[in-house]
Amino acid sequence: MKTDITYDQLVDMEWQRQESTRKARLYSRCAMALLTLAASLLFVTALFNLLTPRGPAPRPHPAPSSSLRLPQFESCSDPCKIVLVESIPEGLEFNSSSTHLSIFQAWMTLMGEARSSLDIASFYWTLTNKDTGTQEPSANQGETILKTLSELSGKLSVRIAVNTPQETQLKGDLRWLNESGADIRTVNMRELTSGVLHTKFWVVDKKHIYIGSANMDWRSLTQVKELGAVVYNCSCLASDLGKIFEAYWFLGESQSIPAPWPASFSTAYNKDTPLQLPLNDTPSSVYLSSSPPSFCASGRTTDLQSILSVMDDAQSFIYIAVMNYLPTMEFSHPKRYWADIDTQLRRAAYERRVKVRLLISCWPSTQPVMIPFLKSLASVQDAKSKLDIQVRLFVVPSTPSQEKIPYARVNHNKYMVTDKVAYIGTSNWSGDYFVSTAGSALVVNQTVSQSAEPTVQSQLQAVFERDWSSAYSTPLTQDFQVKEICKMHRSSTFSV
Fold first, then answer.
1. How many whole angstroms separate alpha carbon 43 and alpha carbon 411?
2. TM segments (predicted)?
């Protein structure tokens, strides 16, 4: 592809060439002088040793104490294993076999593995039928999680960092866990940043982690479509995610944001210097990002920087599955346009001809204003110019009884996959989530797999393509009416 170069750039390039030549000559002369000096010093040293009488051999100095040693980063040689986990709502069936371990099973396994500590960062807690005023048999999985967690709270260290509940929110689950022995701190995000603590992750024994879209809500296990990842036996990565948890824990007590953050919250792993480790026996580059920027200590890549960087590296395709997509500050007053991600997608499609696919949720709570923005993106489609952005809406069907469950039956995924990278996050994609709301993400870049198991990137791609081509997704057309289409699909696709 030809690149246009301005006259000023040509002048700069010529000056840089001349400057490089001048410096090269100067360095050559300095090198010759240094070589001559080094040879002279070697000759004088040899002559001095020859003429000086030898004394007894010097006694070796004792090794420096450990307190004087410089800190070293972990080698990260742990046999880290990563698995994708999903919640598939009851009644949702796919022809494809690309399904994974359930989030319920993953959480139960993590609690079974816990020996010393369990830290959970969460938005809210509604794990029982009592919380939602329902009598759903499918709530039993959430109730089992809560019971098991309460039993653990009396045996080992359980810490929970949670968004400060609103007056109308129930607090029964947290009260029970606290009485069982769990330590709980609420983070008043409204006062700190005007946002919420939207993060959803676990850190177990400082060596296992879960991160993904599922809230501590029984509906996230059986009535809402979710996706996340569990990483086992990976203390180097768990320690880094633990630093993000410690930031929430600190804020829950101080209720003020330090500037700058103490060095203990800093990280060496980010988009420029990712953590190098074997993941499923495959060399991998991994890092964790966080939001909002004010919560990021030195070295931490923000969620927005992470997303833009992953898009910028894509050469072939960008697939995105999120519940909400809005190029606005969704909750701000007055209204504000926010196009950072939207512009990056258009740039990738236009400048590098990257194929872009967005799979967005459609349910009764979908904001109608989202549709015009998505239509605008979908209009960047022209085969002759090789422009290829497509948008589909995913509808989770409901039976009459399932329709009565509040805030359920929705695709709640929050991930992106490109030809190079898997990005698994906890945030919806509108400006507030990256500016004022607390979120986090796992970013994995793997080389060609050296094991029989497929890479995380290829597994996540298969999940997206399964959902994209399923009976539950419908192309976004210019005459699309959000309420009519969603309602129609909720009654028709369930019979498929």
1. 77
2. 26-51
Catalytic site positions: 198, 200, 205, 412, 414, 419
For the whole prediction, is pTM greater than 0.85? no
Q: Which residues have a Cβ under 8 Å from the Cβ of 38 and sit 6 or more positions away?
A: none
Which DSSP string corresponds to 306-330? Answer: HHHHHHHH-SSEEEEEES-B-SB-T
**Mean residue pLDDT across the chain:** 85
What is the C-alpha separation between 370 and 429, in angstroms, rounded?
11
Q: Which residue has the tokens 């607090």?
A: 171
Of 340, 339, 351, the C-alpha closest to 387 is: 351
Reduced to 3 states, what is the DSSP secondary structure of residue 355?
A: strand
DSSP for residue 411: B
Region of 194 please: left (phi>0), alpha (psi -120 to 50) or beta. left
Residue the block writes with tokens 């993000």: 244
Contacts 24+ apart (CB under 8 A), 8-11: none
User: How high is the pLDDT of residue 31?
Assistant: 47
pLDDT at 9: 34
281 sits in the region (left: phi over 0; alpha: psi -120 to 50; else beta) called: left
Q: How far apart are CA 360 and CA 342, in angstroms?
A: 14
At 356, which helix (H) or strand (E)? strand 355-361
Counts for the chain of helices (H) and strands (E), in that order = 14, 20
Q: Which residues pair with 119 in a beta bridge?
A: 159, 203
The full set of domains in the chain, from first to last, is: 81-495 (3.30.870.10)
Pairing of the two strands 473-475 and 226-232: unpaired
Query: Average pLDDT in the 30-56 region?
Result: 46
Alpha-carbon gap, residue 401 to 410, rounded angstroms: 15
Rounded to whole angstroms, how far apart are CA atoms 309 and 302? 11
| Dihedral, 483, 485, 491, 493 alpha carbons, nearest 10 | -150
